[in-house]
Amino acid sequence: MAKKSSVEKNNRRQRMVKNAAAKRARLKAIIADKTKPMEERFAATMKLAEMPRNSSATRIKNRCEISGRPHSVYRKTKMSRIAIRDFGSRGLIPGLVKSSW
Q1: 79 and which of 55, 57, 69, 83 could share a cystine (Cβ 3.0–4.6 Å)?
Q2: pTM for the complete prediction?
Q3: Which family does the record assign?
Q4: pLDDT one-digit tens code per residue, 17-71
Q5: What pLDDT, on the 0 to 100 scale, is given for residue 96?
């Protein structure tokens, strides 16, 4: 089980990204628009830089929904390899069979 503080920190980041997504998209559109004057684009760049780092989507870590584990998380199931193996051993994932050779 992951530390609760790490899981909560990631949840806080997700909320920040959701709240700031529109503003970030607006600023990025201004920065990418080559028809705008350079001063306006630079001002938008500075405003984007002043925003909290945790409001960027790249700061979100994929974590296991079951255990909170940050490594080896499958995107499709949002579960770590350990949780998948555990659920598969108990027969809770249809079609998953533990292999042996």
Answers
A1: 83
A2: 0.78
A3: Belongs to the universal ribosomal protein uS14 family.
A4: 999 999 999 999 999 999 999 999 999 999 999 999 999 999 999 999 999 999 9
A5: 86
The class level of CATH for 1-61 reads mainly alpha
The answer to whether the Cα torsion of 83, 89, 92, 96 is positive or negative is positive
* CATH match for 62-101 among 3.40.50.300, 3.40.50.970, 4.10.830.10, 1.10.10.10: 4.10.830.10
DSSP class per residue in 26-85: HHHHHHH-TTS-HHHHHHHHHHHHHS-GGGSGGGPPP--TTT---SSEETTTTEEHHHHH
